Amino acid sequence: MTNTIAVLGLGAMGLPMATNFAKTFSVRGFDPNPERSSLAKSKGIDSKPSARDAAKGADCAVLAVRNKAQLDNALYGDDGIVEVLAEGATIILTSTVGVDVAAEAEEPLSEAGIALIDAPVSGGPVRAGEGDLLVVVGARDEAYTKAKDVLDAMSGTLVLVGDAPGKGQAMKTVNQLLCGVHIAAAGEALALARKLGLDVKQALDALMAGAASSFMLGDRGERMLDAYSDEDVEVKSRLDIFVKDMGIVTDAAKSVGLAVPVAAAAQQEYLIGVAQGMAAKDDSSVIRVVAPKE
Fold this sequence. Notes:
3-stranded mixed beta sheet, 14 helices, alpha/beta
């Protein structure tokens, strides 16, 4: 039974997950960005000044980090949490970091008496706040059972896809292939509708009512409608996140000798977006790669 959760990383996904957990558990949070920490406090989260303060004595740490470097720093850096977690604690890794990164993280944590649960999530910030995420898990049976209450609180759909860390990342890699392609394709489709003189909102509504609909078209498409306004679209998922994720996809495919030409083409659109200065903008801004703001 989990009592206290430390949520490390209070970004677009970490903060709504923390607020959702706070309905059931005692939650402490940490983010190195003071603005995110202040926002967490305003939403009732006990935001601590350091990762160690947040994790000290916690039964479970939920990590919403960006990449391997951030993961390693959160675990073993100057403010690393491994030494301060409760005995027998679990770490739930919710990020997309790649199969090898999650698999290689297990052994040193196990030697420290900590179980690693590879549980990348999908669904976006709104669903994170509602506890309605898709959570795909790779974990040992004992660790999965121990953290099941936390995983249930996070998820609308919980799928155990393998019996070891790395398997969740494998499934998330497949998921991100589709997500990355769908967003890029949505941008091209709505850009074409605009260039053909159609009412883009009407076009989006029509597409969502037919066989071309998808979650990413509906979600990012709404934000793409504002991509050419004078005000920046609210950043719910940074464009450069998909540079990372599509890199994981293409690297994974290469490692098993599989060609993924559509995913590789989508990856190039995100890379062009970064080169055009859109790295920190919402990933819906990829529409402006094929149809620049005039």
